[in-house]
Amino acid sequence: MKVQPYLFFDGKCEEALEFYKRALGAKVTALMRFSEGPDQAMVKPENKNKVMHSEFQVGEAVIMASDGYCNGAPSFQGFSLTITVPNDAEAKRVFDTISAGGEVKMPLEKTFFASSFGMAEDKYGVGWMVITDGPQ
User: What is the DSSP string of the chain?
Assistant: First the structure.
């Protein structure tokens, strides 16, 4: 069994994919546009070039994403994606990059359980937690 997150960017998926490529070194492994679907009668003309389905890889994780209904109001609540990095320098780099244009919820700092831990929402509203891999 495999569980994977599926993010709906409601019209900003391609922009988000480009951001994750720059911020996290993500690799887009699949991308299908609404114009490629079998039933074009269900697709609004303004959404034909939007992302119907995509998959991108960050490290070992595969995340799926779409523009969903393309209503322009993505909502990501009740979860965060966690990135575990090998050291504090990488934690700072990833945290600063992923939080750029977004909102820091908890600054990256030493905690009782990790030498670096922080929480942020990226500019698309996706929650991220960055943590070092074990105490240092």
Answer: -----EEE-TT-HHHHHHHHHHHH--EEEEEEEGGGSS-GGGS-GGGTTSEEEEEEEETTEEEEEE-TT--S-----S--EEEEESSHHHHHHHHHHHHTTSEEEEEEE--SS-S-EEEEE-TTS-EEEEEESS--
Q: CA 50, CA 71: separation in Å to the nearest integer? A: 11
**Which residue matches tokens 């600054």?**
107
Which residue is listed with tokens 């991308």? 31
Q: The whole model's pTM is what?
A: 0.91
Tens-digit pLDDT profile for residues 62-86: 999 999 989 888 899 999 999 999 9
In this structure, are strands 127-132 and 117-121 parallel, antiparallel, or unpaired? antiparallel
Domains of the chain: 6-66 (3.10.180.10), 81-132 (3.30.720.110)
**103-109 and 117-121 strand pairing:** antiparallel
Distance CA(95)–CA(87), nearest Å, equals 12
